[in-house]
Write a structure and sequence with these properties.
nine-stranded mixed sheet; alpha/beta; Rossmann fold; 2 domains; single chain; globular
């Protein structure tokens, strides 16, 4: 089912796995995190279980009902939240007047800490894919004592090389030239490789929907069309919704335009801290991931060799591709055994539902 190297955990099962059955939250709310921002959160599963926080991708993607199902609800207290500006958090970034100045990597890290404290969690397993792996690594390196373990997928660290590969015509365009052509056309004339993120920043910041909506759809379609090993037309159609596409593209481009407020290579180099604190981890990577190529996962593993690296041999970038999804669920099952209470005890009280 997968290739693996350097085990820090007992071997995961090799049998295919599917998502756990659908569940509904037992609590949810909007947490005021300052700067006029309120982030949506929800908790599912066992209120007394191992706390686990799901960090969604994008940035700008938001959480879905499927994300709840990556964890055994009998053994985990499953925490999901929508990052600033997206999903059910307020205000939403699709609106022309949306201000993204207080939406940065370090604002989101602080939001996670505030949410952890608000929910009475001492420490938690952090699960993130794509941009979620970026934010999970940034959080773990800033707050290592609050992390029980990391489960990461489709590793992305915002290095210039990674952004150039996918968004600036330095590699992915050679694999998906048909989709790349549409992305280039939507940027308008006079843009050379290396200038697409900046041009899209101009278009997506424009207040006129006749300007920013086509740009948002082109940006989002480029990513959706290349995220799976085999083309998933239903997924491509889904991201055409102008509200979703605008919020997703604006936030994502905003982060990439500012290089994530990170030094180049910061998260790869900083992964050595995870080893120093003895934080166990699983890295799951599609061999044919075009959006976040495997070289970044390999570099992370070299910096943090104690983590287990699993390579899905016939998968691209998407979390939902069978080999990748199966390995992720096996990882949360194994951590459920290794992190069972009382090692991750939480306070008994939990907040009441509020908005």
């Amino acid at each position: 089912m997968h290739e693996s190297t350097t085990a820090s955990l007992p071997p995961t099962a090799s049998r295919p796995r599917d998502l756990y059955p659908a569940i509904e939250p037992y609590d949810s709310g909007l947490l005021d995190v300052g700067d006029g921002q309120r982030i949506y959160w929800e908790t599912c599963g066992n209120p007394g279980g191992i706390p686990a926080v799901f960090v969604h991708g994008g940035p700008g993607g938001g959480c879905s009902t499927e994300h709840r199902r990556c964890f055994d609800p009998a053994r985990y207290r499953i925490i999901l939240f929508d990052q600033r500006g997206c999903g059910r958090s307020l205000p939403q970034a699709w609106k022309p007047e949306a201000d993204l100045s207080a939406n940065t990597t370090w604002h989101l890290v602080a939001d996670m800490e505030r949410l952890r404290e608000y929910l009475g969690v001492k420490s938690w397993l952090v699960f993130g894919g794509s941009w979620g792996s970026t934010l999970a690594l940034a959080y773990a390196q800033r707050h290592p004592r609050r992390v029980l373990a990391l489960v990461l997928r489709g590793i992305f660290t915002l290095r210039k090389r990674e952004l150039d590969w996918f968004y600036e015509g330095a590699g992915a365009d050679m694999i998906w030239p048909d989709q790349w052509e549409a992305y280039v056309a939507a940027a308008g004339e006079g843009v050379a490789p290396g200038g697409f993120i900046d041009r899209y920043h101009e278009l997506l910041s424009h207040p006129d929907p006749a300007v920013h909506v086509p740009a948002a759809r082109a940006w989002t379609t480029w990513e959706a069309a290349t995220s799976t090993l085999l083309r998933d037309q239903a997924y491509i159609d889904q991201v055409q919704d102008p509200t979703f596409a605008t919020a997703f593209a604006r936030i994502e481009n905003h982060y990439f335009h500012h290089r994530g407020w990170l030094e180049d290579g910061q998260l790869i180099d900083g992964a050595r801290l995870l080893a120093e604190y003895g934080i166990p981890g699983v890295i799951v990577q599609g061999r044919y991931d075009v959006v976040c190529p495997m070289g970044t996962a390999w570099a992370l593993h070299r910096s943090w060799p104690q983590a287990q690296l699993h390579i899905s041999p016939t998968a691209g970038h998407s979390f939902a591709e069978p080999q990748t999804l199966s390995t992720l669920i096996n990882a949360t099952d194994r951590f459920a055994e290794l992190l069972a209470p009382p090692s991750c005890a939480i306070r008994a009280e939990r907040p009441s539902r509020h908005s």
